[in-house]
Amino acid sequence: MDALALSRAQFGLTIAFHYIFPPLSIGLGLCLVLFEGFYLFTREKLYLEIARFYTRIFGLIFAMGVATGVVMEFQFGTNWASYSRFVGDVFGSALAAEGVFAFFLESGFLGLLLFGWDRIKPRTHFFATLMVCLGAHFSAVWIVVANSWQQTPAGYHLVGQPGGGIRAEVTDFWQVVFSPSTVSRIWHVYMGAWQAGAFAVLSISAYYLLKKKYETFAKTGLKMALVVAAAASLLQLFSGHDSAKVVAATQPAKLAAYEGHYETAAAPLYLFGWVDEKNGQTHGVSIPGLLSYLVSGQSDAPVTGLNAFTPDKRPPINFVFQTYHAMIAIGIALIAIAWFGLFLWWRGGLWKARWFLWVLVLSVLLPQAANQLGWFSAEVGRQPYIVYNLMKTSDALSKSVKAGEVLTSMILFGFIYSLLFVLFIYLLNDKIQHGPETKEEQGHRA
Description:
By secondary structure, the protein is mainly α. It is built from 15 helices and 8 strands. The protein has one domain (about 5-435). The strands form 4 sheets. It has a two-stranded antiparallel sheet with strand order 1-2. It starts with a helix and ends with a helix.
């Protein structure tokens, strides 16, 4: 493999591993606000015990997110120097805003969140929890702003450089912030993060119920998380639809790859299938005219097909098709799990259905898989451009980087990340096995 392919693989590895943790911290942060808010409203100690337990897990996730995020940023200078020169003015403003308005807010109140339980007043601690949650959400805003600008550039002009080449400079900061795809993508990211946090709580709560431990604690946490999961999973369906409509308007080649759509005509929506890129055909089960209807409101409206673009301006079609449809399938599964859980709760059979509790234990993996697949679809679907219609990925690589250097660093990253992941799983399992500091646990110790 050449330096370009290896650099793309390395960046994909580091960002995919990093992206395990921010959605969890965002979603779990929302759950912490709800748990602690219910405690302040009801003064029921059980909600406080739930909040304290999941705060310890939040701290572990936050630490892992910081550790894995730093490595990712160095690659902009080592592997992607040409890209960094081109977008430095745009990315510099967005990432600086992320540091000032988000990371400092989140990390500044984190100490109070983790260590202030018995040192500050409950309302002050709740304010710290709220600020940490808000900081996590703000952080996602600025990262999505930077990435959305790559998808749909706005608020810039191109200027020449003294040594040759061009770079993008910001002409309107707010156009950069509110590029055509920003708002829809932010809400799509938020819903995925809320699902990740809620299903993590569902998984742990269901595990305790199956083991017949901390049952009152687990039932209360499960019910609250189930409401968040049901709401977020359903809202994700609508945010995904809105995001896809933006893709149709701004990145038609990506939408065509999502659905393996070649001819500019009325387009079906595939439930599943396979794209034969060599012969330009898509095989599978589809609903005629549904893609056209979802995009424009008319089932016979033409949708731009892949044949409108030369082969060198198309993404890897079958890969994008499969990741996109797998993401949607998981999204539908999450809706079914959450709302079936609400149905069982309503009928009074939620605690008796052990098979469903096992489904909830394993369901923690599904939001993570959907988030990763969605990222693959969006980023690979933008290819061959790293900045849509402005800069190709092949032109973004550092001029001096060597394939051997990238391969060596990627192997080292893989080794270190494997150790970090094992450590994370070990510490997470230790916290889950230890359980909450409930009255129930204190009684067992006595």
